Amino acid sequence: MSTVVLLLFTGVGLGAIYFLVASGLSLIYGLMHVLNFAHGVFLSLGAFLGFEVASRLGATTWTGFAASLLVGALAGALFAALTERLLVQRLYERHIEQVLVTVGLGLAAVALFDGIWGTDPRFISGPAWMGRTTSVLGANVPNDRFVAILVAGLVLLGMVLFLRRTRYGMIIRAGVENRAMVTALGIDVRTAFTLVFTIGGIAAGLGGVLASHYFGYVSPLLGQTLLIFAFIVTVIGGLGSLTGAAIASVVVALLQQFANYYLWGTGDLAVVVLLAVVLLTRPSGLMGRRA
Amino acid sequence: MTSTSPREDTRAGAPSSAEPVLRVRDLRAHVAGQQVVEHVDLDVAPVGVTALLGRNGVGKTSTIKAVLGLVGRSGTVELDGTDLVALPTHLVVRRGVGYVPEDREVFAGLTVTDNLRLAERRGSEHRYDLVYDLFPELKERGAQAAGTLSGGQQQMVSLARALLNENRVLLVDEPTKGLAPRLVQEVSRVLARAAQVAPILLVEQNLQVVRDLAEHAVVLTDGRSVHHGPAADLLADEELTQRLLGVHTDTGADSGADTGAGAGAGAAPRRAAHEEGPA
Question: Class assignment of domain B5-96+169-276?
Answer without folding.
Answer: alpha beta
